[in-house]
Amino acid sequence: MNVPEHTPSPEGTYGAPDYARGFPPDYHRHFWHQARLAIVHQELARLRPTGAVLDVGCGPGQYVRALRQRGYNAIGCDPGDVSVVHDLVGHVFARTTAEDLPAAVRSAVGVVLLLDVLEHLTDPVSMLAALGRTLPHVRAAIITVPARQELWSKLDERAGHHRRFQVTELSALVGDAGLVVMDARYLFRVLYPAAWLGRGRVRPRGIRPPGYPAVHAIAGRLLALEARVLPASVRGTSALCVARFPRSQERRAS
Q1: Which residues is 74 bridged to in the sheet?
Q2: Does residue 251 have a pLDDT over 60?
Q3: How many CB atoms lie within 10 A of CB 213?
């Protein structure tokens, strides 16, 4: 239950059927997504971005919509064949990587979101380093990934993951890309026992449309609260890293 299901093509992008499976109707109302979005809100409030917030690998763009409703200048890009909802046209760029965005858009980005993206890449270090070169004024990155290799399951295989990360591994990867880690910790720790017990399931379930949205809303708030009250050392099903691109600090100091 750690990530939405995707079946990536050999090129690492997704077609319309893959997005239909990975992003079912109202997927963003699932408690897992509501919790992750709340955590992203918390981290953005700490970062206080002055530029645009770019969600890389944004899918249909529900996070972009939610952030825009919160007052952020949020935009998204996805290299796959995703269908963009009409009210997000001009804010979500389908079949587009960060490098492909118009120069004016790239120049406006102050914070980049990589929400369960790096685990799909064979060389995430190069991708992170490239973002620093592609986005001239980017200041920080908020990154989430599936955590703990002992939780590897059929769901990871179906989603096209290459690995799951310990917090120390994620921090090292981010550092190798030239970023400075500001915070790194596990998330969704109350889900760890169920994920460990269910890792051998033959037919894994990913995110499904919530049958009881009100219950999911409450569960999402509680799961987000858990991220702030449980000890950082407790294992979770996801890992979070907030990092800064060093040149932003250098520019402020000059």
Answers
A1: 53
A2: no
A3: 14
Alpha-carbon Rg for the chain, nearest whole angstrom, is 17
The C-alpha atoms of residue 55 and residue 36 are separated, in whole angstroms, by 13
Nearest to 16 by CA among 75, 104, 85, 82: 82
Q: Residue 200 contacts by C-beta under 8 Å, 6 or more apart in sequence?
A: 153
pLDDT, tens digit (0-9, with 9 covering 90-100), for 228-248: 788 877 999 999 999 999 864
* Per-residue pLDDT tens over the stretch 85-99: 888 988 999 999 999
Q: What is the pLDDT of residue 105?
A: 96
Q: Which domains does the chain have, with CATH numbers?
A: 16-253 (3.40.50.150)
Q: Per residue in 52-68, pLDDT tens?
A: 999 999 988 999 999 99
Residue 100 pLDDT > 80: yes
- Residue 210 — φ and ψ, nearest 5°? -70, 130
Taking the complete model, does pTM exceed 0.85, yes or no? Answer: yes
Q: Which two tokens stand for residue 230?
A: 């449980």
Question: How would DSSP label each residue in 130-190?
Answer: HHHHHSTT--EEEEEEEB-GGG--HHHHHHT----B-HHHHHHHHHHTT-EEEEEEEE-GG
Q: Terminus-to-terminus CA distance in the chain, angstroms?
A: 46
Residue given tokens 């990092």 in the structure block: 243
Q: What is the 8-class DSSP label of residue 196?
A: H
Amino acid at 47: L
